[in-house]
Structures are given as structure tokens and as C-alpha cells.
Amino acid sequence: MTQGAGQGPEVERTATLRDFRVPAYVHETGPYAQSTHPGDVVPPSEEAYPEGYTPTQRDLPIINRGDTVQVTVDPASVPATGQGPLYVVGDVHGYLDELVAALQEQGLLDSAGQWCAGTARLWFLGDFTDRGPDGIGVIDLVMRLSAEAAAAGGYCKALMGNHELLLLGAKRFGDTPVNSGAGTATFQAAWLLNGGQKTDMDRLQDHHLQWMARLDAVEAVDGHLLLHSDTTAYLDYGRSIEEVNDTVRETLTRNDADEVWDLFRKFTKRFSFRDEGGADAVRSLLDTYGGTRIVHGHSPIPYLTGEVGSEDGEEEGGPVVTGPHVYADGLAIAMDGGVTMAGKLLVQQLPLGS
């Protein structure tokens, strides 16, 4: 199994998270708008996008940014032994306060925001930034928890979401034209269109970029196949989990704008497990990579259930989400509770019912 930055108990137990070896590309600033509002961007028409590409047409209203939780890491000298319970977290999209509250509710963080779950295992399913007020604060928290959990004998790991690819692309390539399959496009325009926040870009640092670029795309844990997007596009990148993760990382390392765009576009596809043929699509992934159930984020549960049709923030009162959504003949578990549309940020222990 390949490992990304801060991805396992082997992480060095120090109080700092900044002593990474940084590849040369992350020092390139890349152009990005200083004050452009997403509404000022003129993207290609919605009909022009390739099938399965589902950009958000408008940002949601931005709530005031709360203070990022800052806690000094004090690693335990002797970690606990044995595997603890397994938890997964759905899409966060910059909602740091909601994330901290959800983790505390599950007993994973104490009142000071520090890891208190011992040998528990925690997986984030991707999409840490965009649309919400503090994406960088979310990444900082996940990086810190990776060190704290490892020091306690557990772990905190994360998967690559399409918004990590989008933010990396916007930083690296800016307004460089890419072949979108429907004429020219740019990562910068797509990032703004999909809820990119200037405050996140302003605070984005080298260690954030390297951490995102080294995230795994797929993992299997306790019979659960974990991935971000509800798509079969992962099959395009390898016939094993290790091959998919290596291929994604190599694509990012080559630093080719068109290649990264194609990766982003494929990871943005959704709904492969919904409707007729959805269970067969799930089985195609399980048969290839292993596991008995897929656990994913990406598509908000209100989308999957048909409760709402867009992330435009105009639904009064927000959708009612009480927990994960099990579908596709019971083979898929959706974890995006729709926090960006006033839904719920989900943190769930697996297996369900445990």
C-alpha cells in the first residue's frame, strides 16, 4: 500500500509538520485573481462540458470565518497497541467549526480540539476546501491530527478529492489554457466557478501543496473500499489500489496541465452508482480492488435521494440529512451530508451499526 504525506503511524513524532521535502513546482506562484468574484467569470456553457462534468454554477454564501483551532502537539512517548475503531468523514469544504464539532461528538477530539481517541483510525474522504470559509484551516487540522493520532497509536489519513486536484491546478497552472474537451478552459476559472475562496489561496503554503499532491485516491480498510467520487473512472488509472494511487501521483508529478485537467474532470464525474446499473458499477470496482462495500463522498446525499437538485443555497431550511445513505443494493455508502447546502457534516463509525 502506498502512503501519502502524514498518512500513517510511521509519521515521525515531532511537534512540527513543516519539515517536508518540497518539490520545485510548489515554489511557482502561478497567477490567480486577487479580487475576482465567481460571478464575474464567463465559463463555457453548461451544455459544452463533457458528460459527467458537473461544475457548480454559483458559490454558496460565505459565513464568517471562525478562528482556526491551534493546539500544540505533544506526542505520547509510548503509543497504545492494537487497532481501534474505524471512522470516516465526508466532504468538509472549509467548514472547520462544523468539522471540529462533529469529531468531538464522536469522541475523537477533546474540548481543546486535540486527538483523544487513542488507537482509533480516521479516514477523510477528500474535498477539504472551496465553498466554505476556512479550507486551509481544515487542512491544517487534518495534518495536525495525523501527527497526534500516530503518536497515540492510531491514525488519521485522507484521500484525494476533486477539489484538491482543482486547488492544485489553480495554484500551478492559473490561467494557462487546457484542452477541456469542449474548447479551452483554465483551472483558475474552474476553481472560481466551483467555490474557490481567495482567503484559501492567500494562505496556501508549500507544505499544504505537497500534502495534497501526495494523497492516495483509493484505499481498502476492513472490507470497505474508500474513495472520494461515486464514479468508475478510477478503473482508468489501474487494476490495483497501489497502481491507481501511483498513477495519480505520477500524473501530478509530471506537471502537465492537460493531464491534470483530465484527472480532475474524471474525478468530478458522479452518480455512477445511482439508478439502473448502479449496483453493477459498484461491483466492477469491488471486483477489481476488493472489499464488500464502497464508502464515498463527492455527491451530496440530497442529490442522491432527489431531495434537492443543486448546491445553490436557495433551499429554505436546508435538506434533512441524519446519517449516511446506503444504496445500490446495499453496496454503497454515501458520506457527503451536504454541509455546503445547510445539510450535515458526517462523521461515521464503520461498519454501520457498530
UniProtKB/TrEMBL annotation:
<protein>
    <submittedName>
        <fullName>Serine/threonine protein phosphatase</fullName>
    </submittedName>
</protein>
<dbReference type="InterPro" id="IPR029052">
    <property type="entry name" value="Metallo-depent_PP-like"/>
</dbReference>
<dbReference type="Pfam" id="PF00149">
    <property type="entry name" value="Metallophos"/>
</dbReference>
<dbReference type="InterPro" id="IPR006186">
    <property type="entry name" value="Ser/Thr-sp_prot-phosphatase"/>
</dbReference>
<dbReference type="InterPro" id="IPR004843">
    <property type="entry name" value="Calcineurin-like_PHP"/>
</dbReference>
<feature type="region of interest" description="Disordered">
    <location>
        <begin position="29"/>
        <end position="59"/>
    </location>
</feature>
<feature type="domain" description="Calcineurin-like phosphoesterase">
    <location>
        <begin position="85"/>
        <end position="301"/>
    </location>
</feature>
